[in-house]
Amino acid sequence: MSRKVVRSSKFRHVFGQGLKADQCYDDIRISQMTWDSNFCTVNPKFVAMIVDASGGGSFIVLPLSKTGRIDMSYPTVCGHTGPVLDIEFCPHNDNIIASGSEDCSVMIWEIPEGGLTSPLSEPVVKLEGHSKRVGILSWHPTAHNVLMTAGCDNVLILWNVARGQEMVRMDTVHTDLIYSACWNRDGSQILTACKDKTLRVLDPRKGTVITEKEKPHEGSRPVRALFVSDNKILSTGFSRMSERQVALWDPNHFGEPLTLQELDTSSGVLLPFFDPDTGIVFLCGKGDTSIRYFEITDEAPFIHYLSMYSGKESQKGMGYMPKRGLEVNKCEIARFYKLHDRKCEPVVMTVPRKSDLFQEDLYPNTIGPEPSVEADDWFDGKDGQPIMISLKDGIATPTKTKEFKVNKTLLKSTTVCAGDQGNRGGEIESLRNEVKQLKEALEALTKTVNDLQLQQQ
To answer: Which residues contact 101 (CB under 8 A, 6 or more apart)?
Structure first.
């Protein structure tokens, strides 16, 4: 990768720093699972981490202020019967978190203000529709109560969480394991990376493929991809010689990449995080000690290397704080929560500035916590742009928290349809079960008749 030309950028001197021991979260048994998810999710109120648990799956949710050593008896969220593989906070309600597990279920939890005082084992909603473990979760960025899940059954499902209902099921699109799945900025498209070496841009409500790219990276190891500015696509993967690569694509001209750069020969999967306000992408490798960051621009070579933060210990996972949770008076442009074997270390990225005043150029209006469209309207075809907020007054928490309401009557119904994209999955499954029961009854009847005939002979 050529770094000879010095280009002017206000982010050239971004400075990464791990916080001191008393500001870390210590003595936490981080999960030993080999799954390639972040294992951590954060928002301006809480940090949550997947932990080791005997006889099931659990994760711990801590208020951001609860730093230092965490007692072994601290309550956890422990309703799953198998290890938890992925967790994610709802972007529209800081107290709501979703978890996906090896037990094939997805659960939605409500964390009380101030954190847990006793173990939480009863979810608000339990979503069942996958036949194998669920490893990917992603909340819709603008629609309230819409959740996307992807499992090892190669199925991608969109849920209306308030109804506890499966709305769209994509079970024929992917031929192999889904490595990553994410939304674009307004949630009108989904991008997936699959083990069959194909990137796909999907229409979420129709469940159809808009465009696809085979072999974005030649290597056989996992590929990650996400939407960046102007609906371009950034992917991370491996070359045929197992070198780690990062590439930028224009989905309207998917033939050749806009740029493809080789990084190093490490074996860890690169987890990309993109900040749409600054155009910076952070690449965190599983098992690495470092975080690289690049600036994405409109002119070639499109991806410009900025710098690298290096820590002492390797990272098992990484949480990324939403922009509204940063300290703007300290010129903080990103904050990561880096998981070690036994602790979580916040890593702060700042742009050194002499002035204490609010820096307009570092903090343009950013995505706020208010949803712009309700789930039913979104599934009916209405799109909503993100509602932007200013960070001039510091950390932004919702003026009135979007209440999480569950329609209990609809939760009990398994055959309710929703619009043209209605949930056929539940009906089909119940019909399959009925057919199976009839077959078994017929086999038993045939056996009885045969036995009677033998006795008569």
So the answer is: 57, 80, 81, 82, 83, 84, 85, 107, 133, 134
Q: What is the mean pLDDT of residues 17-24?
A: 93
Q: Which residue pairs, CB below 8 angstroms and at least 24 apart, start in 231-238?
A: 231/184, 231/185, 231/189, 232/258, 232/296, 233/191, 233/199, 233/201, 234/272, 234/274, 234/281, 234/296, 234/303, 235/193, 235/199, 236/269, 236/270, 236/272, 236/283
The pLDDT tens digits of the residues spanning 255-311 come to: 899 999 999 888 888 999 999 999 999 999 888 999 999 999 988 889 999 999 999
d(CA 335, CA 22): 17
End-to-end, the C-alpha distance of the chain in Å comes to 86
Would the pTM of this model clear 0.70, i.e. be above it?
yes
Task: Report CA dihedral (46, 51, 54, 57) to the nearest 10 degrees.
Answer: 60
Q: Which residues contact 422 (CB under 8 A, 6 or more apart)?
A: 167, 416
Over 60: is that where the pLDDT of 10 sits?
yes
> In a 10 Å sphere around its CB, with 0-12 CB exposed, 13-18 middle and 19+ buried, how is residue 58 labelled?
buried
CB-CB neighbours of 432 under 10 Å: 10
Of 81, 85, 90, the closest CA to residue 100 belongs to 85
pLDDT for res 308:
92
Cβ–Cβ < 8 Å for 197, 179: no
Residue 315: both structure tokens together: 């990272």
Q: Is 67 helix (H, G, I), strand (E, B) or coil?
A: coil
CA 279-282-285 angle, to 5 degrees, is 160
Q: Which residues pair with 247 in a beta bridge?
A: 235, 260
Q: Which of 98, 97, 94, 99 is nearest to 113 (CA)?
A: 94
Among all chains, which residue has been given the structure tokens 């499966």? 166
- Please name the residues in contact with 66: beta carbons below 8 A apart, sequence gap of 6 or more: 25, 115
Token pair of 269, please?
């999967």
Q: What are phi and psi of 22, to 5 degrees?
A: -75, -10
Q: Give pLDDT tens digits for 212-258.
A: 999 999 998 999 999 998 889 999 999 999 899 999 999 998 889 99
Tell whether the model's pLDDT for residue 1 goes beyond 50: no
Burial of 416 (0-12, 13-18, 19+ CB in 10 A): middle
Residue with tokens 């990309």: 272
How far apart are alpha carbons 143 and 375 in whole angstroms? 6
Closest CA to 86 of 176, 152, 22, 169: 152
